[in-house]
Amino acid sequence: MPDSAAATARVMRVRARHGAVVRVTHWITAVAFLALLLTGLEIVISHPRFYWGETGNVLSRPLFKIPIPASRVTVPTGYGYVMPDQNGWSRYLHFESAWAAVITGLIYVIFGLFTGHFRRNLAPGRADLTFRALSSVVAGHLRLRRVSEDEASSYNVLQRVAYLLVIFVLFPLVIWTGLAMSPAVASAIPWAVSVLGGQQSARTIHFFVSIALALFLLVHVAMVCVSGFRSRMRAMLTGGGAREVGRT
Amino acid sequence: MSGISRRGLITAGVAVAAGASGVGVAASLARRYGLVPPDGGGVYGAGETLTYAAQRLLTRHSLAREFSRSQISRPPFANVVDPLGEDFKRLQAGGFADWRLAIDGMVAAPASFSVAEIRAFPWRSQITHLQCEEGWSYIAEWIGAPLSHILHLTGALPQARYVVYRSLQPDWWDSIDMADALHPQTIVAHGMNGGELPVPFGGPLRLRVPRQLGYKSVKYITRLTVTDDLKRFGKGLGSSAPEGGYAWYAGM
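Above: the input entities. Below: the structure tokens describing the complete assembly.
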């Protein structure tokens, strides 16, 4: 009897590796982000030239061009043909996905602040930020060392820094530069455009931040595969992990 | 009981029910206060309604940014338009003396104005952005009669909700709500960069709506119709843009 009672108590204390809010917001964000990435690419094809400042068009000098054919006849690309134009639904879906991502992100950030999720799971410990600790983690990654049991149930310092960068720097920046391209938003909050250097600058920054987010996605998925695809997916889908908390 | 607890299920159920009823209440409020755009149905309706409602609540009276004369793009870029037909060429040969802009629908006194008459109206000059949905943009000075002046002159009725505007090009027509129609920067433009409005840029008359993307600024306008219901125009989506797959509201 006492044994089984103790076992029950142990089982009850087994906690999901990822909480329900983290799991649900993660997957909504994942779907929305993929939609944003694809439609964003589609929108770029209609004018694959980038500028700096307030204005830019085919009569002005670009900052750089992407060497791909365009979906509009007015853009001189050097290719003899024009890509099919998919801008309409791409724009509709881009903005709808943006709303989904922003609302989900807000719920996640409010949840994270109130429950201590950021402090507990993402803020790097002071000891992790020393040069020695950092270089040992980096060296471990470079040598493709397998993840230890201890790390499997908690994020290492590089993961923590990467996630915090995505959540608090790249996502806010991509939202800001996206909104700065809106003529109505620019009319209401003009300084949000001028501090970026203008609306074309906002578009260019939006492009680069999107590339940074896409690179994060690549590394993120690669790391999930390397560190055990099935257990990581199970943890993010059902929460089922073997992490016990409350043990002192 | 492993994994899913009864308490967890109840909490999730309550959260989903609260979320669903919250969305329902928000949708009926949006309908009641006219915050649903005409293309607010379908798969993209939620996103379009959120954008339109949020911007109407937050930016109803904001003014599009105006720039200094030194920031005017030289040369500006005129986007391609469908070939202008024989009617246009005939009117152009006559110096647009016979061009008319008609105002009908929910107005006390329907009228029709010549370009010369519109030039004689109080005018406004503004140096603003023109942004294309493709991604490019330019800054130009636009000179024209505020649409609000024309609406007051013809006595737009209080129940009016939209102004539909049509072009000599039959496939390019659009509409704006009264917030944009009465906005001081929404003008019937007849001049650009100190001169007359050149034909490639929409001359002799172009509606300029600087708080929305370029495709809302229809070129070669011939007719304004004030209405309280967009269902009766085209496919009922408010403009030719959604019929071609683009958003009706382009404040973005």
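Note for the figure: The radius of gyration of chain A is 22 Å.
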